[in-house]
């Protein structure tokens, strides 16, 4: 209760721009932020889905229609990002928090995957994110305050099979934002916050990149063994309110592997080779890649 009150006081009335807000973590962020009383700009490519999210936000909160701005955004269309930023500023007059949540995962082996898939992953997850950040950061520097929250991944900490391109994009984000933070020491009120979720019950698996750009995954498998999206988002908001530089939001064994990767990498490499073999077997047999690590009973 004390934690919730702190989040409430820290984020209520703040203007929060969430990308990737049409599903998964971004959608749940919109719902929890609206309940808190934050003013929302929600972005994604699918405007009809954003309108659905806005409608639910209005139903579950005390916000009015003008408190939620629906703004269609394609992260790969970098030439549109300045105008999009200006649209949010025109509507609300400021941006207190940018949540870089838009992105796609991957399920394919490197040897089977076309190189243009890797290019597309980096365009979306990495370049699209830092492009939008650049425009929003200019505004935050003028105000000398703000929070830039980036939904990275435990894959930004470790490496895993079937996700070499996704891991690369998340490692790139980790390196970029950890470097950017060191360039902003003259602005102590601007926070750079990296969120690293493990597997979450979102729709990210349904939208993954595969070995070809025009191919979607055939079977996303059961997702019930993963962390509920609501819990992941609540912990993300706790991390944001407290200006944590980095938060690993995950259940075991992924969280344990993060610690191994950080403090005992030789063990982590050995363990990941063993876990990785099972991950590939799961994928090839048509179930969720991570299903066998769950200790939860059906």
Automatic annotation (TrEMBL):
Coiled coil: none
Classification via Pfam families: adh_short
PROSITE patterns: ADH_SHORT
InterPro entries, alphabetized: NAD(P)-bd_dom_sf (IPR036291), Sc_DH/Rdtase_CS (IPR020904), SDR_fam (IPR002347), SDR_family_member_7 (IPR053011)
GO molecular function: oxidoreductase activity
Entry annotated with the keyword Oxidoreductase: yes
Keywords linked to the UniProt accession: Oxidoreductase
UniProt entry tagged with the keyword Oxidoreductase: yes
Family recorded in the similarity comment: Belongs to the short-chain dehydrogenases/reductases (SDR) family.
Name of the molecule in the record: Dehydrogenase/reductase 7
Organism: Pavo cristatus (Indian peafowl)
């Amino acid at each position: 209760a004390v934690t919730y009150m702190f989040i409430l006081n820290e984020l209520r009335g703040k203007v929060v721009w969430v990308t990737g807000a049409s599903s998964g973590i971004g959608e749940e962020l919109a719902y929890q932020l609206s309940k808190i009383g934050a003013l929302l700009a929600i972005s994604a490519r699918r405007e009809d889905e954003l309108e659905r999210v806005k409608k639910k936000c209005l139903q579950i909160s005390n916000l009015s229609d003008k408190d939620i701005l629906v703004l269609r955004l394609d992260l790969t269309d970098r030439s549109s990002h300045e105008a999009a930023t200006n649209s949010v500023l025109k509507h609300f007059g400021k941006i207190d928090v940018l949540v870089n949540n838009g992105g796609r995962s991957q399920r394919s082996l490197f040897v089977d995957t076309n190189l243009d898939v890797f290019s597309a992953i980096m365009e979306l997850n990495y370049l699209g994110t830092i492009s939008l950040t650049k425009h929003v950061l200019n505004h935050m520097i003028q105000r000398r305050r703000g929070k830039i929250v980036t939904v990275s991944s435990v894959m930004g900490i470790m490496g895993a099979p079937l996700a070499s391109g996704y891991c690369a994009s998340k490692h790139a984000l980790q390196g970029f934002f950890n470097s950017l933070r060191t360039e902003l020491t003259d602005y102590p009120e601007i926070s750079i916050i990296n969120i690293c979720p493990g597997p979450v019950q979102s729709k990210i698996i349904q939208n993954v990149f595969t070995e070809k750009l025009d191919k979607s995954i055939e079977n996303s498998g059961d997702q019930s063994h993963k962390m509920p999206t609501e819990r992941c988002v609540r912990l993300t908001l706790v991390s944001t309110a407290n200006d944590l530089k980095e938060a690993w939001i995950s259940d075991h064994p992924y969280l344990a592997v993060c610690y191994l990767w950080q403090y005992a990498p030789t063990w982590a490499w050995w363990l990941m080779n063993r876990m990785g073999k099972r991950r590939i077997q799961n994928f090839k047999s048509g179930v969720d890649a991570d299903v066998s690590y769950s200790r939860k009973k059906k």
